[in-house]
Fold this protein.
Amino acid sequence: MPSALYDPAVRTVLDRLFGAAQGDGSLMASLLAGLAPGAVIERMPAAELADLAGEAYLPVAPEVGTLLYTLARASRPALVVEFGTSFGISTIHLAAALRDNGSGQIVTSELSASKVRAAEANVAEAGLGDLVDVRAGDALETLRDLPGPADLVLLDGWNHIYLQVLRVLEPNLRPGTLIIADDTVRFADETRDYLDHVQDPANGYTTVHLPLDDGLTLSTRH
């Protein structure tokens, strides 16, 4: 049976989104150049950051999307939790795996109201809307109440708060939960506190790094 990842409806949406995301580099460069002198992204309010990147796709790379599908397909998670929905590219890869698994749910969080609407529309167009709960708002609040323990976590929002989001999720992590953090090489400075946390076995994680795209860090809960 063909994988849901190659279903025509899924491929149509993903191809359109990946094509649109090719303009992200110049868009973000222009937006960052327009910041006030001395502005530091890590110190900006979350709502201001969401507005700043409201038109940016900020996607996972295609090969990272395929890896997400593969990991979710193999681990058969009952609950996937995602920080940083954006336009839904990574969400669709994960949901395609759940469709092929025959069960599972995704809870994903996005602060930008316009992106929430776009992601919901994209996931629905791909035929995967019944598997995805897109929560609008600050992930530090929206991800506190989950329908069960998280089996797989994707951190792909603002890098400098990865550790804060992980701490919110830790009460809902079980032994064996897989945590995937994106962009940890390109934004190593912004994710340093997160990396220090998951690389210390005393904190309950085993961690490995993958040199895909901007760098992935995979951790499992002890």
About this structure: The first strand starts at residue 79 and ends at 83.
